Amino acid sequence: MTNHAAVGLAAAQRLAGEVRAEMARQKRTAGEMARVLGITAHTAGRRLSGAVAFSVTELMAVAMWLGMDAKELLRRAEEPAHAVAS
Predict the structure, then answer these.
(1) Longest CA span, the chain
(2) CA dihedral of 14, 39, 52, 57, whole degrees rounded to 10
(3) Burial class (CB in 10 A: 0-12, 13-18, 19+), 15
(4) Which of 35, 28, 30, 21 is nearest to 72 (CA)?
(5) pLDDT in tens, 16-49
(6) Would you give the end-to-end CA distance of the chain in angstroms?
(7) Distance CA 8, CA 40 (A)
C-alpha cells in the first residue's frame, strides 16, 4: 500500500468512526442507514467499518439523515484522537 493510499484509508476509518459514534448517540442503526442510502446492509457495513470510503453524495445524505452538516462530521473526524466530545 502506498503512503497516499494509507492516508486515505485512515481518513475513511476516522470518518466512519465518527458516523458510527453519531449514529450511536442517536440510536440509529446500520440497517436504517442502508435504507436511506439505497444500499445493501453489507455495503453499509463496509462504509461504517471504513473499508470503503463514503462518497460525497453518501456523506451528504448520511449527514442530513443525522440532522447535521457534513462539514461537522468531517471536522469531528479530523480532531485529535485524544480530544473528548462534550
Answers:
(1) 37
(2) -70
(3) buried
(4) 21
(5) 999 999 999 999 999 999 999 999 999 999 999 9
(6) 36
(7) 23
Whole-model pTM: value is 0.84
The three cell numbers of residue 71 are: 462539514
> Would you say 14 and 48 are in contact if contact means Cβ atoms under 8 Å apart?
no
Neighbouring C-beta atoms of residue 77, cutoff 10 Å: 17
3-state helix, strand, coil in the chain (%, to 5): 70, 0, 30
H/E element, 26: none
Contacts of 75 (CB under 8 A, 6+ apart): none
How far apart are alpha carbons 57 and 5 in whole angstroms? 21
Distances (CA, A) of 41 to 34, 46, 67: 6, 9, 21
